[in-house]
Amino acid sequence: MKTLTKAQKRVLDCIRRLLEETDGQSPSYEEIAACAGIATPSTVCVHVKNLENKGFLKTKFKSGRSIEILEHQRRDPESGVQVPLVGRIPAGKPFEAVAVHETIALPASMVGKNETYVLKVEGESMIDDHVMDGDLVIVEKRTSPREGETVVALVRNTDVTLKRFRRQGRKIRLEPANPAYKPLVLDEEEVEIQGVVVGLLRKF
Known about the structure:
Shape: elongated
Helix content: 10-25%
Distance between the termini: 21 Å
Oligomer: single chain
Number of helices: 4
C-alpha cells in the first residue's frame, strides 16, 4: 500500500468530504486549501499531483475542478501515514535516548491529533501493561498527560524512560508496570513529559 504524509492525508480527506457534500462536484484548489488549512492553492496543487502519482486521485490536465478519487480508494479510505521512528525508549532504568533517522507507516486511525512518532521499547519494566521488549510504541507529542497515562519522560534533562504518570503531592511519580522495578519519585522540575503513548505495534 502506498503511504501518505500527514498533509497528503489531510488533503485527501478534504477532497473526499467536499465531494460527498456536493454530490460529486469536484472542489477547486481554493476550496481544498480552506478545508485543509493550507495557505495557498499552489501548495494544494503539489499535494494533488503527489496523490495522483501515488494512485489515490485522477485529474484532468490543466483543470482545477476535475478531481476524482479512484474507485478502490473510495472503498478503502484508510491509508498509511509515514511518521518518524525517532529512537529507542527504555522500559527499565532511564538512559540517554538514541536518535534513529527512519520512518514507519501507520494506519491513519492510529496517528494522534498532535505530532506523532514511534519509539522502540527496550527492557521489561512495563510488561504488566503488555508492553514488551522490542515493541514499537506510538507516541503523541503532549506535555500534559492525564493521571495514569503511559508517558515518555525526560529525566534531569539527560535520560528518557517509559513509565506510568502519577502525581504525588508536589512530586512526579513515574511508575513501572513490573514489580521487579522501583518507581521514580522526582521533583517536578526534574521531569519533562515529552509525549503520551497512544498505541502499540508488535510483530508475532
